[in-house]
Amino acid sequence: MAKTRTYMDKYKFTAAENQRFARANFTKLVHTNARFEGVNTTLPQTQTIMDGMSVAGVPVEDVLTIVNLKRGWQYITAQNSPLTLTMEKQINKIVAAEDALIPGELRQGKGGVDLGSEDFFEPPLINEKQEQSFLQKILADPRTTITDKALTVMYHNMRQQIFWDGNKRTATLSANKIMIDGGAGLINVPLDKWDQWNELIANYYRTNDMAKIKRWTYDNGIQGLQIRANLALKSVKDKTSKRIQKQLKDFADQNPEIKPKNDPENKNDRPSY
Length: 273
Description:
Elements: H1 15-24, H2 26-33, H3 43-50, H4 60-76, H5 85-95, E1 113-116, E2 119-121, H6 128-140, H7 146-160, H8 167-182, E3 186-187, H9 194-207, H10 211-220, E4 222-223, H11 231-254
Antiparallel strand pairs: 1-2, 3-4
Helix pairs in contact: 1-8, 2-3, 2-4, 4-5, 4-8, 5-8, 7-8, 7-10, 9-10
Protein name: Filamentation induced by cAMP protein Fic
Region (Disordered): 248-273
InterPro entries: Fido, Fido-like_dom_sf
């Protein structure tokens, strides 16, 4: 049986602290999330639009995407109750107000995602009771961390395409609502690794196996403050490092004929450049 990956929470905020941390990073978060819709504004342009001013050369639809994402982030950081399917509908109603067939309503017809190279993914039809049960079950599971719950909900919702449009934006904000409530930091895929993420999400759509993209997102896309780093996680890493060092030492002691590279005692060794 394959070993289950444990996604320990990297940060330990209070919910109020995590809300403030998100608000302090609204511009960066909106700037990244807008890329889901192909918006290519610079960070300063995104800030200018969020401040209510126009930017020459930026299409109206891109401006609306940015403004609605800002409103979505404002909404989730103002809610103190746990995430529900009703709240997810409201998030979608906000962020997809200009492009969904029926903003805030679950998809009741066929949908699909273009994966490129004539590859097309068609998600299953949506059953509201099943989606509500899935969310409740994930959030109530005492065996999983906040970060694990958030990543699972995010990628499940993206693949299911539960809304008519704006699914990646809605799923990302919904997942971050879970992160904020649990004080676990934020999920934000760095733009300099966007190509890697796109390959992983396309593969996930094809296979329905989210293990790789969850692991990658955990390693690359969880953000917080060092002052709120989870000391328990650091302790685990320190123990792992010490265990590896001991294993290496034991191996060296048991195999004295093997010399390390560039060993000054080995006359035949030469520095590598």
